[in-house]
Amino acid sequence: MKLYAKTIAQTLPDWATIVTKSADLIEIEINDEHPNFQSLLEELETEIEPGIMGVKAEDLCSRLGIEMSNPNLYQLLEQAQTLISLIATHPDYKQLLNEGYQPDLNIADAQTALTYLQWELDRNRETFA
Fold this sequence. Notes:
- The protein contains five helices and six strands, in the order βββαββαβααα.
- By secondary structure, it is α+β, with helices and mostly antiparallel strands.
- Helix 3 runs antiparallel to helix 5.
């Protein structure tokens, strides 16, 4: 599991490792199989919605001394476009298509939706600039 943070505590538990660190983003890899991490999850587990138990990211980050990164929408769109492109060219995806996979919506539809969102963001930016 990965977390993306703006700030972190001086020391991290042995089940958390900094993967990359830049001026505005720290990527942290969590060994979610580690017994100490599992114990922490059990300790933090709460009822998120009626009948649904889980751990709120906010509680986990607070315990770790991490301030979560909240990337702007442009960054998220860029990442999504990159991931969709990787999916479209992935051999497993191509194999599914060759075997007859025909979804109602496809990769091109997802790319188009993200392009429309990008255009809307650009249009709003021009409006408010």
